[in-house]
Design goal:
single chain; 124 residues; mainly alpha; 5 helices; 83% helix; ATP_synth_I; membrane
Length: 124
C-alpha cells in the first residue's frame, strides 16, 4: 500500500498545480466562468480521487483480514458528480457546465498521464 500513497501524493501534486493554473486564469482573464467551472470541477475531482484512494485502502485491509468487502464507493463519486452538475446548472452565470464536467474528468486524465510517464521512466 505504500506505493498507492506515493502515487496518490504524486497525482495530488499534479492536481494542485492544475488548480493553481486555473485560479490564475480565473483571476487574470476574462473567461472567469470557464475557469471557475474548471476550479470547481477539479476540486470535486480531487475529492473523488481522495475517496477512491481511501476506499482502496479499506478494501486492501478487508481482504488481508479475510472480511467481506462491500464496495469501492462508486455511488459517492457519482453523487459528487451529480452535485457538481446541479450546482453548475443552478448558477450558470458563475459556472460553465462544460468546464465543470471537464474538471470532473481531470483526476482520470491525471491518473492516465501519471501512469504513462511512470511507465516510460521504468523502461528507460
Amino acid at each position: 500500500m505504500p506505493e498507492l500513497q506515493f502515487k496518490f501524493s504524486r497525482q495530488r501534486r499534479w492536481m494542485f498545480s492544475l488548480l493553481s493554473i486555473y485560479v490564475l486564469g480565473w483571476g487574470f482573464t476574462s473567461y472567469q466562468t470557464i475557469f471557475l467551472g474548471l476550479v470547481f470541477g477539479t476540486s470535486l475531482s480531487l475529492f473523488n480521487l481522495w475517496l477512491m484512494v481511501r476506499k482502496m485502502k479499506q478494501f486492501d485491509e478487508s481482504v488481508s483480514q479475510g472480511r467481506k468487502v462491500r464496495s469501492l464507493g462508486s455511488f459517492s463519486r457519482f453523487a459528487t458528480a451529480a452535485l457538481a452538475v446541479v450546482v453548475s446548472m443552478r448558477y450558470p452565470e458563475q459556472l460553465n457546465l462544460i468546464s465543470v464536467v471537464i474538471g470532473l474528468m481531470t483526476s482520470y486524465i491525471v491518473i492516465m498521464i501519471d501512469f504513462f510517464m511512470h511507465s516510460l521512466q521504468i523502461h528507460k
